[in-house]
Design brief:
Order of helices and strands: EHHEHHHHEEHEEEEHHEHEEHEEH
Oligomer: single chain
Strand order of the largest sheet: 1-12-13-11-10-9-2-3-4-8-7-6-5
Length: 365
C-alpha cells in the first residue's frame, strides 16, 4: 500500500476497523486509568510493545533493540532490561522477559506506576503468585510488597533489579487483568485497583485505539497525551488548584477558546512509532467527537508538522478515521527521510522539550 500521497489529500475511512480483540494496545488501554486523557497535567503515559519490538529486531530484547525505546524511561522493567540482559532480568525479577507482552508507565516519582503486561490474565496471575517465593508478602489490601514501602535501602540497590532499582526501595505490586502494577507505595496503586473508569472507556481511548489498529505496520511504542499538551503551556497550573475534574476541564477549554482559531481542543492524542515494510513511521493521532473538526484538524496538523520539519521532502500524509458509534481521529502519518530516518524520535524530543507545534492544532500558537 503506497502511503506517500500529498499531505492534504484527506481520506475518510468509515466504520470500525476489523482488528484483533486481544491486541496489546487494547490490553494496555484496559489497564491504564481514564485520567491518562482526562487529567489536565503535563504527564505522559508511555507504552512499549515488547513483543513487537523484539519481532522487529531479530526476536530478542537486547541492548540494540531497547535503544529504540525512547519511552522506556521511568518504566521499571524496561529500565532493568536496558541495564542488564534477558538472562539477568529473569534471574533478578523471577519473570522471563519473553513472557512480557508490553510495559507501560504513568505518573512521576514518588507516585510513578509501572505496568507489566502479559498475554492474558492467567499469565499475569501466575507471575503475581510466583513473587511470593521472592520475598514478597501479602498486604491487607491484597497487594504484595518486598519490604517496607518508601524506605531507601542502599544496601539492596541494584539498577538491574526491577523490584529494587537504583535506590534499593521496596516495590508494592497489585494485579489488574493481564498486568501487574508496580509502585513504591500502595497509595499510588489504590486508585488503579478500585474499579475506576479505564482509558479504554473514554471516547479518546476508543477513537485512538481504532485509529492505531487501522494503521499499516506494528505499533512498537506510543505516548498517550491529555488535552493539556494542546495548549502549549497556555494556562497556569495554579489556576486549576482546588478544582474538581469537570471544573478543571472547563477552565482549560475556556483557555483554549481564548486562543482558538476555530477548532475545539482535541480530547486525547497519541504519538506512535510504527515499524512497516518501508521502514519506521510516525503516526500522530488526535481524538475528536465531531468528524468535521477532525477533518479540519488533519489538514492543520500537516501544515504544523511541515513548518517544524523544514525539509524539501514531504512524506507526511493526513487522513481521518471514523469510528462507530461516533467520533473520528485526525491522523498524520510521517515516513522517515534521509535527514530524519525515525521521525518518531524527532517528535518525542520536541514533546519532551515542550515544543511540538503539531499538538497545538487550532490554538494559533
Amino acid at each position: 500500500m503506497n502511503r506517500l500521497v500529498p499531505a492534504l489529500a484527506l481520506a475518510l475511512v468509515a466504520g470500525t476497523p476489523v482488528v484483533a480483540e486481544d491486541s496489546n494496545l487494547r490490553a494496555v488501554l484496559s489497564v491504564l486509568p481514564d485520567t491518562v486523557f482526562s487529567d489536565l497535567t503535563p504527564d505522559v503515559a508511555r507504552y512499549l510493545d515488547l513483543s513487537a519490538l523484539a519481532e522487529a529486531h531479530g526476536g530478542t530484547l537486547q541492548h540494540e533493540t531497547l535503544s529504540r525505546a525512547l519511552l522506556g524511561g521511568g518504566i521499571r522493567p524496561a529500565e532493568a532490561l536496558a541495564l542488564g540482559s534477558p538472562e539477568s532480568f529473569a534471574e533478578k525479577s523471577g519473570i522471563d522477559s519473553a513472557a512480557l507482552a508490553f510495559v507501560a508507565g504513568i505518573g512521576q516519582p514518588p507516585g510513578a506506576v509501572s505496568v507489566w503486561g502479559f498475554a492474558d490474565a492467567e499469565a499475569a496471575t501466575t507471575a503475581f503468585s510466583g513473587l511470593s517465593g521472592r520475598g514478597f508478602i501479602e498486604l491487607p489490601s491484597k497487594m504484595i510488597a518486598n519490604g517496607e514501602p518508601g524506605i531507601v535501602d542502599l544496601a539492596t540497590r541494584d539498577p538491574a533489579d526491577p523490584w529494587r532499582g537504583s535506590m534499593g526501595q521496596a516495590s508494592v505490586v497489585g494485579l489488574s487483568g493481564p498486568a501487574l502494577l508496580q509502585a513504591g507505595d500502595g497509595a499510588a496503586l489504590e486508585p488503579l485497583l478500585a474499579g475506576r473508569p479505564l482509558a479504554l472507556d473514554t471516547l479518546a481511548g476508543r477513537l485512538l485505539l481504532d485509529a492505531l489498529e487501522a494503521e499499516e505496520g506494528a505499533v512498537l511504542q506510543a505516548a498517550f497525551l491529555s488535552a493539556w499538551h494542546g495548549l502549549g503551556g497556555g494556562i497556569d497550573p495554579a489556576a486549576l488548584a482546588g478544582k474538581n475534574p469537570d471544573e478543571a476541564r472547563a477552565a482549560v477549554e475556556q483557555a483554549a477558546a481564548g486562543a482558538s482559531s476555530g477548532l475545539p481542543l482535541w480530547q486525547g492524542a497519541a504519538l506512535a512509532d510504527l515499524e512497516t515494510s518501508e521502514g519506521p513511521v510516525l503516526v500522530l493521532a488526535f481524538a475528536y467527537a465531531d468528524c468535521t473538526d477532525a477533518q479540519a484538524a488533519a489538514g492543520s496538523v500537516a501544515e504544523l508538522w511541515r513548518e517544524m520539519d523544514r525539509t524539501a521532502e514531504d512524506l507526511a500524509e493526513a487522513s481521518v478515521v471514523e469510528s462507530q458509534p461516533s467520533g473520528c481521529a485526525a491522523i498524520l502519518r510521517i515516513a522517515g527521510h534521509d535527514n530524519t530516518p525515525r521521525p518518531f524520535n524527532q517528535a518525542t524530543h520536541a514533546l519532551m522539550a515542550g515544543n511540538l507545534p503539531a499538538l497545538r492544532i487550532g490554538t494559533g500558537d
